[in-house]
Write a structure and sequence with these properties.
The protein has 259 residues and is mainly beta. The protein is built from six helices and 20 strands. The chain has two domains: 55 residues, SH3 type barrels (Roll), CATH 2.30.30; 195 residues, Fumarylacetoacetate hydrolase, domain 2 (Alpha-Beta Complex), CATH 3.90.850. It binds zinc ion.
């Protein structure tokens, strides 16, 4: 099942403020079935089919928890040691970006890079949860791009500035609720069609259930929260005019432009 957020094409034609995105199930290209509310909050399908011209970012998290250096080869390419426990940081929800929309390069940075990542969407409240409880509490998976101003990340002690600019968190195109084996998902990033990153979650230092359990012992995970699980090796710069694609096996491809 593909869960999307769309703006009803008919409502969008009305004058005034743009209508809010609505939760829906993807039916076919340009067509979705509306849900009564967020699916992880009890939303159920309605009989209303709507047409849409573009997909909205399919998550509305209270927080975005990211994992740094979760693939050994990527830790090494940036000259870092392989961590002995997960390295966590947060991205602000204000950084979220719709599928197809443009990543905006900030004037403060001379080097902005892509980080294609598997995204986990939480479906239940998880506090001090076991790995089994966390596995059962996953709502679905998606593709994410942990866009990073590498020069600012290196300059600052905290990652907040380098990772937190508006548009630095493209996610989508949808949430796939039928997650296959989380330990063998392929994460691939292409820039203008050229493969930059190609990794498997089998090479993660800390597997997804362990990560979620670890995080849940620090902060309560709420339904809808998003976890970006780290990037494989091959990060590199993006410049204005590029098209960046992140493909997650079993989900699909998130595509964004850069300006
Ligand atoms: Zn990352």
């Amino acid at each position: 099942m593909r869960v999307v957020r769309v703006i009803d094409g008919e409502l969008a034609d009305c004058s005034g403020a743009p209508p809010a995105p609505q939760w829906a199930l993807w039916q076919s290209e340009g067509m979705a079935r509306l849900l009564t509310s967020a699916p992880y909050a009890g939303g159920i399908p309605t009989d209303r089919l709507v047409s849409f011209s573009s997909l909205q970012v399919p998550v509305t998290p209270t927080k975005i928890v990211c994992v740094g250096r979760n693939y050994a080869a990527h830790a090494k390419e940036l000259g870092n040691d392989v961590p002995t426990e997960p390295l966590l940081f947060l991205k602000p929800p204000s950084a979220l970006l719709d599928p197809g929309a443009a990543i905006v390069l900030p004037a403060a940075s001379q080097r902005v890079e892509h980080e294609g990542e598997l995204g986990i969407v939480i479906g239940a409240r998880l506090k001090d949860a076991s790995e089994a409880e966390c596995r059962a509490g996953i709502f679905g998976i998606t593709a994410g791009n942990d866009v990073t101003a590498r020069d600012l990340q290196k300059k600052d002690v905290q990652f907040t500035r380098g990772k937190g600019f508006d548009t630095f968190c493209p996610v989508g195109p949808w949430i796939e609720t039928e997650c296959a084996d989380l330990s063998s998902i392929i994460v691939e990033t292409r820039v203008d069609g050229v493969v930059r990153q190609h990794g498997s979650t089998s090479n993660m230092i800390f597997a997804v259930p362990y990560l979620l359990s670890y995080i849940s012992r620090i902060m309560t995970l709420e339904p809808g929260d998003l976890i970006l699980t780290g990037t494989p090796e091959g990060v590199g710069p993006i410049v204005s005019g590029n098209v960046v694609e992140v493909s997650i096996s079993g989900v699909g491809t998130l595509s964004n432009t850069v300006r």
